Amino acid sequence: MKYISTRGGMQPISYSEALLEGLAPDGGLAVPEAMPQLTLEQIEDWRALSYPELAVEVLSLFATDIPGAELERMCQAAYSSQNFVSEQIVPLTPLSAGIQLVGLSEGPTLAFKDMAMQYLGQSMEYALRKQGSVLNIVGATSGDTGSAAEYSLRGKEGISVFMLSPQGRMSDFQRAQMYSLTDENIHNIAIEGVFDDCQNLLKALSGDLAFKREHHLGTVNSINLGRISAQVVYYFWAWLRSSDALDAESRETHRASFTVPSGNFGNILSGHYARVMGLPIHRLVLAANENNVLDEFFRTGVYRPRGAADTYLTSSPSMDISKASNLERFIFDLLGRDPERLAAAWRTLDETGELDLSAEQPRFAAEFGLVSGTSTHADRVETIREVHEASSVVIDPHTADGVRVASAHLDSEVPMLVLETAKPEKFPEIVAEAIGEAAALPAHLAGLLELEQHVTEMPNDAEQLRAFIAAHAVK
Known about the structure:
CATH architecture of the domain at 92-110 and 226-435: 3-Layer(aba) Sandwich
Distance between the termini: 31 Å
Strand order of the largest sheet: 3-4-14-9-10-13
Number of helices: 20
Helix content: 40-55%
Radius of gyration: 21 Å
Strand content: 5-15%
């Protein structure tokens, strides 16, 4: 398996090389030359596997240059009882008739990002050893990516992390998780502006090929291919668990729908890839908050990214994103995997500020199973309250966006699986507003908010960021 750029300007590279590359040299994103294909019989053969064992099977289809024994070691280390609270790693919990919660937040930072990041830390360290190289990771986070990346990479040999976050745009818990770390290879940088400003700085550095090569820059944000491939695993896991109780004959026709709270389009892109690989997914439901650029796109076919001034500060802050980096990978598939058409589309987007694919919009649901919806603060509060009253389960505001939008796309014949974003303990204010009290922090995180925080505040300035990275990069 080799990987190419969505924009056609990169020679095919291996999986290990793609892990370390970040943006392709032409500004595009790495995608498989051809997507792996599976039969239902092959998927059924995985039913009895544990989560780490399933991860080995799925990831081996992408990471063909990594020896099987190494991949098995990585997955066992990533998805261990030391990292994840649940014995299943990803438990499924019924919330209401037809809706189940896919528990992706059992890891060390209580967010779904741990599912990919714990694997990415293992695989990146392997790839660097293989190349005899070092890596300075520059990432951008709207909340959970930063802490998940830092917890998976802290102390890793040959790796430093420079994590950009928007000043004042994360919850107190999210800031404390990141800024309280004292590892020498972790550097937190709070940027004046919104998440999209952080993401634009990241892209500016990634596009500066001379600086990128000189300082061995890479990325772990949602454009990283390793994260996309690792997230594919839990779609297969959840589909298998949702049909465990069925008899053999019923499993042959079993389908499931997934609702995914979405900001940067990485998580739901992994579901799109799972569906293309052959997993019987009926609908992929994208749930947006008030920053609903993606919902507008999937309803109309017109993509209009918004600027910082038009990006709202909401109570589901990890989705406060108005320019979805991973959408390019989906549009690449939509345009027949034609890099020339993709590059032309992105030139139009850069020149005009919008991309009109309304002629293709009917295909979103009919061909790709993709539909969408928007949830508001009032919707989140009401949904957290309703779910708690019905099931005694407390959900976080992003997951509440998912449950709210999922309820508009239920089918009595098809189970709806909502992907959990984070634990409610990370967002005490809205949980208290909804149910009258905040969820208590786990015992092992008691005192987190009182720890000294270490962060460098910086204006939205690429030159200052370059100077900081140059001064602190691992050589």
